[in-house]
Specification:
By secondary structure, this protein is mostly helical. It is built from seven helices and no strands. α2 crosses α6, α3 packs parallel to α5 and α4 runs antiparallel to α7. It is globular, with a radius of gyration of 17 Å.
Length: about 180
């Protein structure tokens, strides 16, 4: 079933019409957390800095592979589903590619899920990471560069790829 177009329109219009100027500026900054460059740096840094040290290489390989698979999946879908972006975009650079699915949301979720599972479950700071992914997804709709369904689809791709990647990595390490 396709995402109801009226719901997409209504949510997109609500976020773009009710976004205060200051939050618009914040959204422009936050949306960059979903860029490919930031995703690579964030995953690499987390993989290297988080304990245990013996899993550094595996985390780096898992993170970079998950990002590569995510990029491939997103770009393939963008080529097949040439869906236009919302008519009102609050960005300085014109966007010419398809908005479906949102690559920023996909990358943000890949980073968030992998870093979340890499951080010790006893550390409350681990909950900051999924919140940041949600804020990146919100920024895409608030800036008018993606429909809500673009963001949901991107997040689903990121979740799927990161989940499978993490499970495969754990099987490799645990020998199960």
């Amino acid at each position: 079933m396709a995402f109801p177009r009226d719901l997409d329109d209504d949510l997109s219009k609500y976020f773009t019409d009710h976004l205060p100027h200051d939050l618009g500026n914040l959204a422009r900054v936050v949306t960059e957390l979903g860029s490919l460059a930031f995703a690579v740096i964030a995953l690499g840094a987390a993989a290297w800095l988080l304990p245990p040290e013996r899993e550094r290489r595996l985390r780096i390989a898992t993170g970079l592979t998950a990002l590569a698979v995510t990029e491939f999946a997103v770009r393939a879908l963008k080529a097949v589903v040439t869906r236009p972006r919302p008519p009102v975009a609050r960005v300085f650079t014109p966007l010419v590619d398809s908005g479906f699915p949102s690559a920023h949301a996909a990358r943000a979720v890949v980073v968030a899920l992998l870093v979340f599972v890499w951080i010790d479950p006893e550390e409350p700071v681990r909950w900051v990471v999924p919140i940041l992914a949600f804020v990146v997804a919100w920024s895409r709709v608030a800036l008018g560069v993606n429909w809500p369904s673009d963001v949901f689809a991107g997040a689903a791709i990121g979740w799927t790829v990161a989940s499978v990647g993490h499970r495969l990595a754990r099987k490799f390490v645990d020998g199960v």
